[in-house]
Amino acid sequence: MTETITTAIAGISADNPDWTALKAAAGTLQALQAQDGSVPDPADHPAAAAQVEDIIAAIGALAPAFPHDARYLAAVCTDFDAWAAAGFAVPDFLASLLAFQPQEQRVNGLQHLVIFPMYTQNGSSSRLVEAVLLEVIWPEFIAALEAGDYSNKLFVPIRFVDFTAGYDTNSAVLFPETVAVSTTPTFTWGAIFADREAVRFRRVLKAAAGITGLELPAGAAELLADQDLTEATFVMWDLIHDRTHMRGDLPFDPFMIKQRMPFFLYSLEELRCDLTAFRESVRIDKDENADPEARRHARLVQYAIIFDRIFRFAITGSRVRNYDGLGGQLLFAWLHQRHVLHWTDTRLSIDWDNVADAVIALGTTIDDLYWRSIDRPKTAHWLAAYQLVAGTLTPNPASAWAKGPDALPLDGPPRGLTDQVLDDEFPLSMFYEALEKKMRPVIESTAGLTGGSPL
């Protein structure tokens, strides 16, 4: 249950001297750490101890601005002390992680000071000491949606105030599973930086629309013009997407349990969640009794999903098992083959009167795959999922999977099938090859963005 914060909302800025001291100490400590978070060289321990002392002192100075995090900040200081006393072995910050419960404090504008040894997804793969100053985004219409049909008690949308090096990257999430702990706890929250999602979307859409000659509809143009509006739109998208991972006719918890599967299955799961958010946004948009703000943002969510998927997801990252990229390629090709997206005379256009039906049809196709797969063996589910993707996208000519079941080791363990999937099983189309070359500098420029970054 969301608690009411009766104290004043903290207002620490990026240039606060205690914050900058903490940030500097964390950065110096990072240089001494190994990938597992330890400080392996005893010769570095005195320097590491000095940085830990500076971090604890800075937290103590900042703590009065965060009374709602008092228990966590006390616990994290204790964990830092214990880590230093144990000789800087692999850190264990389980106690402070359990004390940090931001999902209980979803108040618009409320700040948190977060510091853990952790990796940052799409950022640093090492569990270094990272610090981030952030604030919650929780507008009234989102609170109403979450309290109604879209309950998601674990979801915490946030924006950056400032951060250490691990977040000067493409990472846009703060997840408890990234923290160095001795025992894996039950995770009770997940936080997404909606400001980074929004500003990189705006930068990419602006460039892609110019390159492709796409005339943006009025709502999409609004997103380009207004960062706050786009942030709230992404919060609505993420709220519905995030809860969908555990809802529906799931073959067997297809995404959340760590297991080795062909990457196109992750593509379909992420796309399923986005298309569910799209479908629900269409429903809200058409509901005359819905909250006006929810209806307004519901229309914008539809634009955000389509444009982020086809312009950013499809050409971001490497071609090595890029499941988000594949989902973007699939959506683009699906819309093109249903004649609602057109690339004619070197200009892109979209038939907005009919695009929603086509997008929802793709979602229904994936939902049907899941529903049927409950009664299928794992191998049969994998083959059916591949056929779904290959029915729209052209596989790599060197693919064993494209040759059909007779070319695959069906009599062995599932790992043998996964090993036969090429890193780039569904290569970029000629359209995307050309677009990627023109968009590459823009995509690369989106690392480290915050809501205040210029387009």
Walk me through what this model shows.
49% of the residues lie in helices and 9% in strands. The protein is an alpha+beta fold. It has a 5-stranded mixed sheet with strand order 1-2-3-5-4. It has a two-stranded antiparallel sheet with strand order 6-7. It has 15 helices and 7 strands. The relative contact order is 0.09.
**Mean pLDDT across all residues, rounded?**
95
Strand content: 5-15%
Q: List how many beta strands DSSP finds.
A: 7
Secondary structure: helix percent: 40-55%
SSE series: HHHHEEHEEEHHHHHHEEHHHH
Structural class: alpha+beta
The radius of gyration is: 23 Å
Unreliable spans are 1-8
Please report the number of helical segments: 15
Please give the domain count.
2
Distance between the termini: 38 Å
Key traits:
455 residues, alpha+beta, single chain, globular, 2 domains, two-stranded antiparallel ribbon, 15 helices, disordered N terminus, 5-stranded mixed sheet, Fructose-1,6-Bisphosphatase, Chain A, domain 1
Task: Explain briefly what this protein structure is.
The protein has 455 residues and is α+β, with helices and mostly antiparallel strands.
Could you give the topology of this structure?
Blueprint: H1 17-30, H2 45-62, H3 70-85, H4 94-99, E1 111-118, E2 128-136, H5 140-147, E3 155-163, E4 173-174, E5 190-193, H6 194-212, H7 218-225, H8 227-244, H9 263-286, H10 292-312, H11 323-337, E6 341-344, E7 347-350, H12 352-373, H13 378-390, H14 414-419, H15 430-444
Parallel strand pairs: 3-5
Antiparallel strand pairs: 1-2, 2-3, 4-5, 6-7
